[in-house]
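Q: Start with the shorter request: fold the first protein.
A: Done. Sequence, then structure:
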Amino acid sequence: MRGNHTAHTATKAHSHWLDQYFSPYHQRFPYRTVVRCFCQISFTLLLAVGLLTGCDSGGGTPPPEDSTNQPPSVTISTPESGSEFSRTDTIRFVGEAEDPEAGPITGEDLVWESSTDDVIGTGEEITAVLSADLHVVTLRATDESGQSAEDTVSVPVNGPPTVTVNSPSDESAANRSETVALDGAATDPVNGDLSGDALEWTSDVDGTLGTGEAVSAQSLSPGPHTIALTATDEDGQAQSDSIDFVVEEQGFDVRFRFLSDLTPSEKATVRDAVSSWENAITGDLPPYFLPDELVGEDAFDKRGVDDLAIAVEVSDIDGAGGTLAQATPVAARMSGGDFTTTTAGLIQIDQSDRSNSRLETIIEHEIGHVLGIGTLWDDATSGENSVAPVHEGSSTTSAYESLSGSDAFLLEGVPLQLFGGAGTSLAHWSEENFDNELMTGVINSNSENPLSTVSLSALEDIGYEVDQSAADSYGLPSLQITRFGSSADATLSRPAAANRNFGTPQGGPVDSVLVAGSNNDRLWLPNEPEGQVFSSLVRFELPSEIPPGVDFGALLSLQSKEINAETPDHQVSVYSAGASWSESNVTDANRPTRQDSITSFDFQSCDPTCGQDSPPVVTGQVERWLNGESNNGLFLRAPDAVSDSTFSLGVYNRHVQRSPLLRPYLIVVAQKAAGQVLARDLKATAPSKSSTRGKLPLGDDILDRKIYGTDPQGNVVKTIRPQK
């Protein structure tokens, strides 16, 4: 019993259980009336309940207290049934409940619950914001004995419809010639299913496509689309669902997105630059979707890509005359764990060079990098730490060998650019070997830059279908240059260190150098007495033969580290070595003999580059090796010291950790039998960097940016940096 309800005293014990039994009627009828009515009950009934002494007797056993408890009465007064609301409305709910035995029920014993939103509050009055739906709101009251009762009210809360595009599926594609079947559905939270004009299909490219649950869309524009189904209810509330969709066009198609404020003329130049690539690439590529990592960036606002999407922007790179432009793929298709064709790329044009008269050629070159030349071919290149890096793609090598004069290149593969920064070397064809071809590291400012079959074949090795007949007319220069790095070298010293080996690094000053001369000032062996004499050995791996009908010449390239000369005689003599030797074991005591004198050079003029200012010509010796003479390498010796004077030359050996161009190497210049390769030809053709007269160096034009390898749905499978 509730605290405000007082039990009868002992003098009224005879009526206590009656009060409980008839409590539902206690408030409606006087107590005497209840007793009078009860006395009229038949004797049989009284026997059934154990009452044998008459109406006024206090004898017998009363029933359990809760046997007469009645459930509460519950009423919802607000809102009225049928009232409509919006999903943004704050709705007031008011109700009351009465326990027949104890009176009003309040607080947490009154619980409001929505058929959609579950419990929304407790108490006689609450406010709530309900989701859009047709709600059945229940007020449930529970008394102290656990009996409960409830009242309900229907509360429609209007909101935008629920919309679903059933087909096509998200991130799918169709050919331009196909009719695309659009199917969808929408449901209003209050009024149910919507149809007819309430449903509108649109494309962000082609506009309105039709109305209704099902629409057949014909002749959609090629390229990426966002297709949306929008449903509008009777109250004007609308909701949409959309999919990313690609309409494929036959052939290879490149679409540009201009991020900067390029002029109409500049945009036209960019579009013209891609024409040679679009003509050469014939195979239609499967549509792909860009990874989430790119979606949302300014460069890529649409996920679907038919063949290739390129973003173009103007950027402050390095001022006029430096890097003219930069480029890289940013997303590429995957096949068998390897990167293949590009789906999206980025080109940056230097702000200071955007007015360059060769802008179209520059952009054409950068599109080649976006397609994958120099960026996606890392598995097909070798010689990263070599003086003769090559690209070894099978189609590319065959195309190179088929060009006039190509068999004068003496290594297997296509020669790559050796000089330049990280974004130039290994990412372009060798300027020395290709001259004005489009994908070398410079642009010829006063001549054409043809697109060769070699570059198209490189695309073929990456995964594109190409038409070789679309290549420009092109022939290799008559002179082809090959470099052969040192395969073994060692410094020799006497007399104090005559039995010491200096062929492998041992933590001393001669670890990275080959020395010829004297050491009266302890420059090279500070812990040995003055008066040490030095000489050196160096050996090169060469091909087994020169191709028939090829003339060649050979130079020795040495890069000086330090020169110390106090005498007028600065000559270093070059001999052939008379016997085989091991880099890790040779000493002055067991060195091979000197044989034929080959040449000599003034080591003082080697500052800084012996092999370039006055390169020693060693053609005759290389020819003898190729004709069968044992290749024991070269012997470098300087004159012995005069009195206490000092003179020595230290050149870098093959163990130097810096650029491979510092290491000893042979430069072999060959040509088809059109005439003898003369020494002057060698010296004119062999500088470390080709002359830039009449040329525009592209600089380090590979952007250092992640490249995402994706599956067709845009899921990232692999991530790399472009080869640099």
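Q: Next, the second protein, separately.
A: Sequence, then structure:
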Amino acid sequence: MPSNLVNTNPEIGADFVNSNLTILGAFESGIKTDVAEQFVQKFLEKYENVEGELYLGYPIYIDEVANRRICVDMALVSKIGVYIINILTEPVVKYGEIQDDIYAKVETKFKKQNFLFKKRKLIFDFYTLTYSVTPIKEEEDYPLAQKVDDIMDFIEQTREEQEYGDDLYRKILSGLQEAYGINTYKERENVEEGTKAYAINQMASLIEKYDSAQMEAILSDATGIQRIRGMAGSGKTIILARKAVELHTAHPEWNIVVTYSTRSLRGQLEALIARFYAAKNEGAKYNPEKLKIMQSWGSATSKGVYYEVCLRHGIAPLNFSEARAKYGRSVNHFSRLCGELLSSIKNFQKMYDCILIDEAQDFDKNYLQLCLKILDKNQRLVYAYDELQKLNEEAMPNPEQIFGKNIDHDTPLVVCYRNQGNAIVTAHAIGMGLYRKEGLLQLPSSSSVWEAIGYVSDTPITEGQEVTLYRTKETSPELLKTNPNEVIQFLGYEDYKKMYKSLLDMLKSDLEKEQLIPRDIMIIDMDTFEYGKNCMRLSNIQSEYNSVAWDDEFNYDEDKEIYKFKIHTAGAANPEDFFREDSVVYSSVRRAKGNETYMVYIVNAQKCVNSLQRRSDRNALFTAVTRSKGWVKVLGYGEDMMVLQEEFEEIKRQDFKLHFDKYPTKEEQKQIFLNNKDVAAKDIQTIDKTKNLIGKLTGNGNVTKIQLMQELFGMSKEELAKLLEGGE
């Protein structure tokens, strides 16, 4: 993202928001803020066009002896040089010792990145400088500034004559940010050029760096409520994990909780936090008693926030079965449980110093309010969520609706790092039914959402006017070097057997020819209610073709297997069982949520076309597509699949843009919503029972289907024929 898009400190450099200097962080001290304000003004007057990032109060290391976090007051990484500036507000005897200490710590930080040094030396120079508010004696060989002009003179004397290139500049920023560990992919050896594994290796080799908005989310003051929002793939989980590590490192005495809904997220969060903490703390392990990773609900065998709150307040917690028995099937059981705690507990005990909530769109306000109630007076609550949980509405109410007050920090993340551009546009277009012959199925409730999730338009989004939305290289970086036409495909088949046979062939190609490993691949079934049975169907087809490995003596030769790979059902071993090293995962959309991988196969996509819950099913298809960091193949069969294929062809004709001949008015949006309401789950159950009854009535031959319809609707054969042909 261009650095001039974000100025995260409105108090400093407010008059220079269109500059190339990004300002991150803040000071508690008003004196230091004044110095920074003066410095920014003079720097931008002299180096207006120089790209750079200025970090204020940036944490460098932990002084274990003094038990405090040591921060660099101003860390400037620019294309004309790197400067670490310490601001003294009180006189000191030997500021040179402080300078030496800071230099050593910053150098160590940079040297953790092997691409920043060669022959035991850094490949760039950086400078330390002390600024003293009060007069002090200058020490030899230790630069001292006693007015802002002195800082500017020092920069001018030491600046690079030739500006750093983009590559080196990005590397230096990565080193300062301690961005190593973002990418979990381990480069594989002996991969052939042109394979998917080769493309993934290339992507994995890119320099890891947080963008300005991500760094602001990490560094922002932990006091009060913080909201982190963005689209799927914008790095929310990574940012949340890194923020948890920063807080745990700085305040090891705090009781911190990272909480989530989808159980399969636990492994991902644990891996991220362990890796970030080890990288920051010389390979050390975090303290799981002080930094806890807990599911929202929990159980007697697995800690969860709800369970812990109940036990602390002397209340018997309920499990899922007990909650369903108490409230019935068609309610949000967890919300009801949290709501009861909020109303029944009069005096909440303060259990934690900070709570970080991932995938907060999976919860309603009851859980967020409950989390706030069990925090201390500083109310350190961080919640991250997808801007759009459903394509027809924002995922979360505004903070005032949730907490009854405004929040302290709000960080929107507009860049999508997970999904390739063509894939994310397709996901939105298909999810909305934008190019559906019958018209739109749904639309975000506010047009401002488009900008918040990284779309741009050459003209303002005006109701009733033609609008074209598209993504740029800034909001959808081209991280994967592959043919854009191969990023996402829609493939239709005659029946499920042919679909699954084709899937097996593609899996074979991926694992053998493309050199992927099972963990690189995810199969997502859109047939929510039958996905377990469908996985068995796939297994049976695989076994059928592998049966050639049996000889006449009933001996089995594995070398003769056609499909030499395993497929397992997500959650088969336990609720947190998802990816395996030796087996490809077969999952429902619900279990896949929160997980991601490079190659995603979506099967039974035809289920999303003419179901009684078309909007929900389209939302689910959107979610499935956005699980991919690389390629997506959408598979289905029958006439309904042809509908999706036609929509995809139109997306390609529109050059992967969202084109509205006329952007719907508020009234038209209401009508779209009313015309495409999902049938309630309880009504679907009633319909299923009715279908079974009709089957019995017509199955014995005494009553024909035409006769039954005539009786039910009071219509003639001619009227029925007209209705079936599409008439009124």
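Q: Describe the second briefly.
A: Residues 463 and 666 are 8 Å apart (CA to CA). Confidence is low (pLDDT under 50) at residues 1-8, 64-68.
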